[in-house]
Specification:
The protein is mostly helical and 43 residues long. The protein is built from one helix and no strands.
């Protein structure tokens, strides 16, 4: 029972890491997109 619980916890922490990883990528893409728009508007 404890082994199974531990396994679930490892999977959960892994998913959390992937979520944060995806979130940072999305923020970076948005940042690049916004800076690109600002460059185009100013030029």
């Amino acid at each position: 029972m404890m082994k199974n619980e531990n396994h679930i916890r490892i999977i959960y922490s892994k998913d959390k890491g992937w979520f944060l990883f995806g979130l940072t990528i999305v923020i970076q893409i948005l940042f690049i997109f916004v800076s690109y728009l600002v460059m185009n508007i100013s030029l």
